[in-house]
């Protein structure tokens, strides 16, 4: 916009406007921003009075979106670095189960269980990355293998140790633990109580919770989502390492020749993806108090969908964390919002498919602008 | 390009409009939401959908069915939150995992929504979360009753084909059956997965490896149908003692032909139908049954199959 100041003839003016327009277009967040506005407009029109925008409703789709954000940030950075991780969903189930087994079955303190699980899962992420980098196999295949390996253990271990596939009781053992509230707690409780007392948000009408606000704080899940967005965004856009990530995914060979430690970057991104999946799992286990063998099913695709809606290219080298976060928001709002709008839940997939297709078409168009191919 | 993206979103919006209009049109009377733990792939829940649809029609209330597409129980907890936020008159839900679901359900009750627990869970758990009542079949008891019946028929060893091993209630059926027989569950439970070809081949492989197996127990049509095929293929159909949970077209045929000894019907139709009727009458006239309702176990054998055959998979 600022460069369109020269007082020249009409045709030049037009050319400049197009170039500015194109400049705006190649921002990876664009699709996400347009989509977010469209989705919110849609639901404000069709579901405004359905409870979707009450405090309880907002919290509902915020939490679901935050879940998508947590895994999408990891998937986004990895995808920009040129790789996929299909084991994210299984990793969520596996990490949750490890915490439950360590803390409930083996009686470890919860903080130790959480930290050990983090170390274990990030190490598995490193193994994923090492195999991909060392063998040169597509990450699609390697992580597909881990999808099954981890899911298998997630069913086998609790079956062997406890003779059941859902291990509960984590809430009881997490009582008084110093680390557990970092994942399962809520913040700003006082503020929400104040809001409730002053009639600014709804309160419970009966039972032991009468008078308490229906939303009593911001879950740590949302805090983690925001922290990961900030971390990922700063890492990607403000640091040398961020450039390395782009370079590794753009053209690994060229990057290597110019001194970028491509293998190291990719392995670290696999570890970061595993870290994100583990954050997701710990938050889930702490909130619900149990780990189940079917947790996280298909979440790997949801992460990838959020990232793709958010404008990252499947081929790597291009994308943004903000875009991925917006993609996750769109995903969460659409998934939960269709219910409020009274749409049959099976049609959610149709909607998601349409949005995904639209996003991919948009991405292809953008790639053509960047690369100049026609 | 901007406009292109908008066009796509608008096209999607327009595509969804008839759906929105259709569902908004029926909005009169009370509104009830049924939440289940079943993944989309589980056809057994079709009967449940028929049950609430018929009850909704007869009572003149609006009913909705919601489920987590992959069967993930944490997702189900969010769906209950969401259902509560939409302010219905009542929520009918399964209690597939007490730890995961007690929070959302208690919160729904606390915000003034009446809840009835159906299908999975127990009367005790229903009371604990503040639900009005429990309508369903206590799974362990049903398995135990089946085990005792098999014991009376002289059975001493069995194979339990479990198609959803991650669901504790299905494990309880196998465990109950083993306890009813008075033997250890041990290695008798087979994690079969849900793919029919895999189930069939695993059952055949198990029976080949364990030729002394005297009975087969399946936990629903998902595992029963392929098991029937497996038994036909290896020639054990009719020779091996075969019992199953739930009914379906193939199971009814199997009972008729004598391949299946009995089917345990928990009457899913009633589990969906009764809560809607009970809640509507409670909300309109303040009447409520004083106890939980056991919709099963009812043993279905070759006697009196006609009506069951007619409605299997639809209302039965």
From TrEMBL, chain A:
Major subcellular location class: membrane
Record keywords: Cell inner membrane, Cell membrane, Membrane, Plasmid, Sugar transport, Transmembrane, Transmembrane helix, Transport
Entries under InterPro entries matching the protein: ABC_transp_permease
Membrane topology classification: Multi-pass membrane protein
Transmembrane spans: 30-48, 60-80, 86-104, 111-131, 137-157, 214-236, 267-289, 301-334, 346-366
CDD domains: TM_PBP1_transp_AraH_like (cd06579)
Subcellular location(s) of the protein: Cell membrane
Function according to Swiss-Prot or TrEMBL: Part of the binding-protein-dependent transport system for D-xylose. Probably responsible for the translocation of the substrate across the membrane.
Protein name in UniProt: Xylose transport system permease protein XylH
Organism annotation: Paracoccus fistulariae
């Amino acid at each position: 916009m600022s460069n369109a100041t020269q007082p020249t003839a009409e045709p030049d003016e037009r050319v400049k406007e197009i170039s500015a327009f194109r400049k705006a277009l190649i921002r990876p967040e664009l699709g996400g921003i347009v989509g977010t506005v469209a989705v919110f407009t849609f639901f404000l029109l069709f579901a405004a009075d359905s409870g979707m925008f009450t405090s309880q409703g907002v919290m509902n789709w915020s939490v679901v979106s935050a879940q998508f954000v947590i895994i999408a940030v990891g998937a986004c950075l990895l995808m920009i670095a040129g790789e996929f991780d299909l084991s994210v969903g299984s990793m969520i189930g596996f990490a949750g189960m490890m915490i439950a087994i360590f803390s409930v079955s083996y009686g470890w303190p919860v903080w130790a269980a959480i930290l050990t699980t983090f170390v274990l899962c990030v190490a598995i992420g490193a193994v994923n990355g090492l195999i991909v980098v060392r063998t040169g196999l597509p990450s699609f295949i390697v992580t597909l293998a881990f999808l099954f390996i981890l899911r298998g253990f997630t069913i086998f271990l609790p079956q062997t140790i406890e003779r059941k596939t859902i291990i509960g009781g984590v809430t009881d053992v997490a009582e008084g633990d110093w680390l557990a509230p970092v994942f399962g707690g809520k913040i700003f409780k006082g503020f929400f109580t104040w809001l409730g007392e002053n009639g600014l948000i709804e309160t419970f009408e009966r039972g032991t919770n009468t008078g308490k606000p229906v939303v009593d704080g911001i879950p740590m899940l949302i805090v983690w989502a925001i922290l990961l967005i900030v971390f990922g965004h700063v890492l990607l856009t403000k640091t040398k390492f961020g450039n390395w990530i782009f370079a590794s995914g753009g053209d690994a060979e060229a990057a290597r020749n110019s001194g970028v430690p491509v293998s190291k970057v990719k392995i670290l991104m696999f570890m970061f993806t595993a870290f994100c999946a583990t954050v997701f799992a710990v938050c889930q286990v702490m909130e619900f108090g149990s780990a189940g063998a079917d947790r996280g099913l298909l979440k790997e695709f949801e992460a990838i969908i959020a990232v793709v809606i958010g404008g990252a290219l499947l081929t790597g080298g291009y994308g943004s964390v903000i875009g991925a976060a917006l993609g996750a928001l769109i995903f969460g709002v659409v998934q939960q919002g269709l219910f409020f709008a009274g749409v049959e839940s099976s049609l959610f997939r149709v909607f998601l498919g349409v949005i995904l297709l639209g996003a991919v078409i948009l991405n292809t168009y953008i790639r053509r602008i960047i690369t100049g191919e026609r | 390009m901007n406009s292109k993206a908008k066009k796509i979103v608008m096209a999607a919006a327009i595509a969804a409009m008839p759906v929105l209009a259709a569902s908004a049109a029926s909005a009169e009377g009370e509104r009830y939401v049924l939440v289940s733990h079943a993944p989309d792939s589980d056809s057994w829940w079709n009967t449940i959908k028929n049950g609430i649809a018929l009850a909704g029609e007869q009572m003149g209330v609006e009913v909705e069915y919601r489920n987590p597409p992959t069967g993930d129980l944490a997702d189900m907890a969010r769906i209950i939150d969401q259902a509560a936020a939409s302010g219905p008159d009542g929520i009918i839900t399964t209690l597939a995992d007490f730890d995961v679901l007690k929070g959302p359900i208690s919160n729904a009750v606390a915000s003034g929504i009446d809840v009835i627990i159906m299908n999975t869970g127990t009367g005790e758990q229903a009371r604990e979360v503040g639900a009005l009542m429990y309508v369903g079949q206590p799974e362990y008891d049903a398995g135990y009753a089946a085990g005792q019946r098999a014991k009376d028929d002289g059975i001493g060893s069995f194979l339990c084909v479990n198609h959803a091993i991650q669901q504790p209630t299905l494990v309880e059926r196998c465990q109950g059956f083993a306890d009813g027989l008075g033997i250890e569950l041990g290695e008798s439970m087979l994690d079969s997965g849900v793919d029919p070809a895999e189930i069939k081949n695993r059952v055949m492989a198990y029976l080949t490896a364990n030729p002394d197996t005297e009975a087969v127990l399946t936990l629903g049509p998902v595992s029963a149908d392929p098991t029937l095929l497996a038994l036909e293929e290896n020639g054990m159909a009719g020779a091996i003692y075969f019992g199953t949970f739930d009914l379906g077209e193939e199971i009814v045929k199997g009972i008729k032909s004598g391949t299946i000894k009995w089917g345990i019907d928990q009457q899913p139709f009633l589990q969906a139908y009764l809560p809607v009727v009970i809640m509507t009458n409670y909300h309109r006239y303040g009447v409520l049954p004083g106890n939980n309702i056991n919709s099963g176990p009812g043993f279905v054998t070759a006697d009196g199959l006609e009506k069951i055959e007619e409605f299997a998979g639809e209302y039965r």
